[in-house]
Amino acid sequence: MGKIKYVLARLRRMDFGNMGQLAAEASDRCGKPKAFIMLDMIWCGVRYQAGYTDYSLFQMDRANAAQRKTYVTRGVNDRLVSRFNDAGYRHIFENKDEFNARFAQFLGRGWLRIPRPDEDGCDEKAETDKLAAFCAGKEEIVAKPRDGMCGKGVEILRLADYADMPQLYAYLQSIGAGVVEDVIVQHPDMAALYPDSINTLRMVTINNGKTVTLVLAICRIGNGGRVDNFLHGGVMTRIDLDTGKLKYVCVDQHNNTYETHPITGTRFVGYPIPMWEKCVELAKKAAEVVPQIGYVGWDLAVTPDGPVLVEGNEFPGHCLYQLPPHTPDNMGLLPLFEKAIEAR
What we know:
The protein is of the alpha+beta class.
């Protein structure tokens, strides 16, 4: 019954124009008729709770029934969130100031809460003075929205671009910034991948109430901009959990693959993440802080002094886990999640 409800809900919100376009692209790629692909998309929605975006992103046309069962699809991901993440505790992850306060021991950098102007007791002059004290001696700061996730709305602000602190404070209010933070200085080995962005690790953990398991990890790398976000020009690949080395070639949002970085020339496969054991340790310790949120995608940066926590995502996106260049055997990662769910 749950699967039927999911499919009916998805059908009500479906963009058939976009579905047709993705089906045409799959048809061109695999040679099967577009009508067949669209029917197969619908079947995969019913059988595997895979949206047509999942079908296109993972290229499920190349997988047989046994292989398709192994994919973490949108519906499967939703079930994991529903099972492990208590809605009453999600606000800790959704609100940046709450998150920073709860996970302060893992941040490794200074930060300041920016209250809303309509909050009780908010004194604009006093808050501007606090901001001035925080910014003293800095060239840049990072502004984060109160309730953004996955890096959305994050801005790096150059202080010289603002005439004075009142102007900066007004701008922070205009963009809904909830916190400002020190800029992270990354480890030289991470900068060697690409120096103009903080190249982060996404560490996905399951806390099943008995133990914490690191299920998978990916590395996101900037490519021409100041952010490593996959949807803003960045590239990514999976990390071998046993060795801490990049496991595959990198891929961008257009499914282009890269053996070396287009700008730095750094070769990806086999590249070691510095302080990998400490990265694993941090992710697992963080997963114990709020056990009511048991399925989390942690974003980490590696500094010269060790890994630091950037943010935690209590509704981790599943889209980057199983891209075709990283699933050469057409097998998804659901078995890893099932193993973590049963781990003791």
